[in-house]
Amino acid sequence: MLRLLLLRHAKSSWTDPGLDDHDRPLNPRGQKSAPLIGRFMREHKFNPDLVLCSPARRARETWKLASTELRSSPRLLMEDGLYDFGNGGRILDTVRAKADTAKSILVVGHNPSIERLAQRLIGKGEAKLRKRVTEKYPTGALAVISFDAKDWKDIEDGNGTLAAFVRPRDLAKETAT
């Protein structure tokens, strides 16, 4: 079994209009939500073997904050191809090219490519969660997709099972109660 975790970077700041898009940091809300996602991953044993991260500052900061909550240190690769805003094809190509022996891969990237890839790959899973993925994939959201496959080259559209889809606001509600 293979597992792909698709994490959209946490909420970023637009306060400095002079900054290049690539250099935008997380805003305070993003800084609070990224560790919640890391804690969720740890508590549900969604520990990646490999992390493929966009080199954009907001993606790097999201991973750094989320990773502080994990009790593992997966291999990390910054990949230019993940600074992508297309249909998710470049993400999947990057996963296939870099996976090596990893069975669980976390991708930290951007919309719309993260959302579109999740929608393309998911064929099964709880209907309510699948609907949520198609309605909105907010900043900081994480989809966990499992595949009954042994090699990443066998991953195709529609053959994944959505195991989890969590948004930061879901976790903030749990923490508040």
Q: How would you summarize this macromolecular structure in one to three sentences?
A:
The chain has 177 residues and is of the alpha/beta class.
Q: What does this protein look like?
A:
The protein has 177 residues and is α/β, with parallel strands linked by helices. Helices cover 36% and strands 21% of the residues. It has one domain (2-176): Phosphoglycerate mutase-like (Rossmann fold), CATH 3.40.50.1240. Strand 2, helix 2 (57-67) and strand 3 form a beta-alpha-beta unit. A 7-stranded mixed β-sheet has the order 3-2-4-1-6-7-5. It has helices at residues 28-43, 57-67, 89-98, 113-121, 127-135, 168-176, and strands spanning 2-8, 50-53, 75-78, 104-109, 122-125, 142-147, 160-166.
Topology overview:
Blueprint: E1 2-8, H1 28-43, E2 50-53, H2 57-67, E3 75-78, H3 89-98, E4 104-109, H4 113-121, E5 122-125, H5 127-135, E6 142-147, E7 160-166, H6 168-176
Parallel strand pairs: 1-4, 2-3, 2-4, 5-7
Antiparallel strand pairs: 1-6, 6-7
Helix pairs in contact: 1-2, 1-6
